[in-house]
Amino acid sequence: MGTLVNGFIEPIAKRWSTAMSGPLLLFWLAGTLVVYWPRGTGSRPCHDPAAPAKPLCALAHQGAAGAALASASATTAVVISAWILTSSATFVLEVLAGRWGTTRFALACTRYGITRHARRRIAFRAGHPTPSGVTGERLAAWQVQNGWRNARRRAALARYPRLRDPDPLMPTTLGNALVSVPAEIRRQYGLDLRYCWDPFVRALEPSVREELTAAATRVLARVQGVICAVATAVWCVLLPGWWPRLVWLAGCAALTWGAHRALRAGVNTYCCHVRDLFTLHRARLYRALAFALPATTVDEVPCGETLSMFLSRSVPPASAPVTYSWPPA
Q: How many other CB atoms are found less than 10 A from the CB of residue 236?
């Protein structure tokens, strides 16, 4: 799973973009308000300075040089935090996808998550039977509303690997969504993303590759939003009293929940984007490697499996030779 996340999103995503600066700036703005609001009034935020605002207020009282040094210190803090944020985004995505370690507690949580998602997958496959005794207009109304529910059910079921797939269930929704994409592409086209993903990305047209990069960057940006939402809770230690701290933590919890929901939506959109790319552009992978295109739908999976074995360098010695289809000079 770690190889999938690292190779599926991280290499093609931009490390930093303007969309990623929003959560970080909101984090520091919230911290600045918490530091200065209880310790100053009106236009005098340093009226009663105390730690941690006292050093910055002392610099501000030194005139232009102190103000410049305070600005440089604040800029340095923002830059360092941005570096930490971009460096930890991939690891956090792996944790949210189900990388929890092999301790007893982690294994217990993993078993519980897998069991819960296995039950959800069965429930999604079963659907909702028509209630008995409902006829006429009530039945028509139920069918309309059940149509919406079935659409959500089919969309949720598509984010799970099939029962016949060799890919195991993951303990989280994000993990299952990321696993379902390679499973579906292997099932439909015989292509193994562990070996085909990097050549496929390189074979894409520049404009299509830029769209894929933008989609992967949005995923990492939303991961950083989750990190900033969780990190905002640390400012509660600077608030006076228990009630303000509890209110602050409740707000951070709601913000984290919203950021996680946005991340799930972003991952689902990215997975749909990858599926569509293979549906439309997989022929470029065959042509780039001088492999003959599948002639029929029956040949699709065997051709994809042969290409995957070629890229994995695991072609059996006794297998039939593959005839290259080089483009004309």
A: 17
